[in-house]
Amino acid sequence: MRRRKLAIAAFMLLLLVAAVMIVWPASDPPEPKYKGRTLSQVVQKLGLRANGVIPIDAKDREAIQAIGTNGIPYYIRWLASEPTQFQLKRMLVLGIIRNLFGLNHCYECEQPFVLQDGVPDAIAMLGADAKPA
């Protein structure tokens, strides 16, 4: 009797593991990195530059060129992304609070838009002779 219960429990566990493996979403491949900085960190910095917040430096250009065409799928995803309703409402509330208290505009608070602003500069840095990493 005990052996039968053990066999049923093992079978149920096997079914559970199989169901989890089928249902579990596949994770995206890791984002490309160069010298410890992810592609999104570099592109965010380019986006802040496009908004006139910070200057660009040679390290950003070097990172984009080193990552090369491996970044293109991410550029496409970032350009096509739309902010969620929560992100839009959060930005609206933060904007009202900043205006009430006379605070500076916070571009870092608008990550989806900053990424979108940085993508054209990143693509321009790749240039016509872009190579895969």
Features:
133 residues, mainly alpha, two-stranded antiparallel ribbon, 3% strand
What do these coordinates show?
The chain has six helices and two strands, in the order αββααααα. With 133 residues, the protein is mostly helical. A two-stranded antiparallel sheet has the order 1-2. Helix 2 crosses helix 3. The protein is flat and about 75 Å long.
* Radius of gyration, taken over Cα atoms and rounded to an integer in Å: 23 Å
Main sheet properties: 2 strands, antiparallel
| H-E order | HEEHHHHH
Mean pLDDT: 79
Percent strand: under 5%
Any idea what the shape is?
A: flat
Q: In terms of per-residue confidence, which ranges show pLDDT below 50 for 5 or more consecutive residues? A: none
- Which class best fits the helix and strand makeup? mainly alpha
- Can you count the beta strands? 2
| Discrete helix count | 6
* Lateral arrangement of strands in the main beta sheet: 1-2
User: Roughly how many Å apart are the termini?
Assistant: 60 Å
> What share of residues is helical?
55-70%
